[in-house]
Amino acid sequence: MIHAVKGILEKIENGKIYINVNGIIYEVVVGNTGDLESKINEEVYILTKLIVSDDGLTLYGFSTPERLKLFEKLISVNKLGPKSALKILASNSVEEIVSAIVNEDVSRLSKMPGIGSKTAERIIMELKDSLKEFDLTLSEIDKKTIEAIEALVTLGFSKSQATKAVKKAAKNENSLDDIIRKALKYLSNK
User: Fold this and answer.
1) In this predicted model, what pLDDT tens digit does every residue of 76-100 receive, in sequence order?
2) Which positions ≥6 away from 172 have C-beta within 8 Å?
């Protein structure tokens, strides 16, 4: 089993990264490559999950142990494959996904890429009781933070831009309006 890949990031292409490890280049499917764009020709460390299918072997990569664990939980859901699970993870934070599942929020979950209402219901039914290991993460979730991110995305900012700005703003602010106002200030200064 390949637990992780550590090497020089040579190329990024179509949701895949290519990492040179002592002359062997690994193709790793990551979905969202935004954070890696600035690391071309630098050393990276990516946690991985090897999936064997009729199409061959595919190595999926993740930046944090939580993202890897959630990916493994999602692919355990009946009729939810690795590509769909990766789409969900690429466009949402672990906190948002876990919160939607634990709170049985079919509406929010079905707005995520590749998920309809029936799939959302199946995910909730199969996973809501098995996400205990994410309790620590959930205790840090603030509903206002998620709402602020959603508001900024509605205003046209990317999910990653909104998330970064809201995390900065939420450290010193308490109300939803203040978080959004301060996040907008961060975003306008870029």
Assistant:
1) 999 899 999 999 998 888 888 888 8
2) 182
